Amino acid sequence: MSEGTGAGEPDRAAFLAFYQEAVPEVYGYFLHRCGDSTTAEDLTSETFLAAVRNIEDGRPAPLDVPWVIGVARHKLADHWRRRARDDRLRDALEQDPVPDEDPWDVRLDQLRTTMDRLAAGELAGKVMVCPTVAPVSSGATA
């Protein structure tokens, strides 16, 4: 944040005064809704970072508590969405664990064993039938 050289751009002292006034309000807002001081601290930090970015991007904003509480509301909504998404993912992983062995790997191992036996001559004279192809009758013509 600069020293307030642009039109409508607050100086550092004005922002610091605003910050000192607004931090207890924003923190209290989050603490009341989350019930967790660590989360409230994190969301308070995110809120003020968003406020600084908003100002640095040249979007004029009033430096007052109602405005920053509006920013905080959006940060809280983002937090709950992120938490719900994480909870859904965790629940899905717990309900559908990854199998210890992939059935395709098992089938591939069986096929390799059969191919090795064929190469070694163990299955000489035996006919392999492919179950997905219909048998051709001996009187059929091409």
Describe the structure.
By secondary structure, the protein is mainly α. The protein is 64% helix and 0% strand. α1 (12-34) crosses α3 (65-95) and α2 crosses α3 (65-95). The radius of gyration is 33 Å and the shape is rod-shaped. The model has no long low-confidence stretch (mean pLDDT 81).
In short:
The protein has helices at 12-34, 37-56, 65-95, 103-119.
Report the total helices.
4
Class from helix and strand fractions: mainly alpha
**Gap between N and C termini:** 83 Å
Remind me, CATH topology of the domain at 12-95? Answer: Rna Polymerase Sigma Factor, Chain: A
Give the CATH class of the domain at 12-95. Mainly Alpha
Low-pLDDT segments, ≥5 res: none
Instruction: State Rg.
Output: 33 Å
H-E order: HHHH
CATH architectural arrangement of the domain at 12-95: Orthogonal Bundle
**Gross morphology:** rod-shaped
Oligomer: single chain
State the share of residues found in helices, binned by percent. 55-70%
Would you report the number of β strands?
0
The biggest sheet amounts to: none
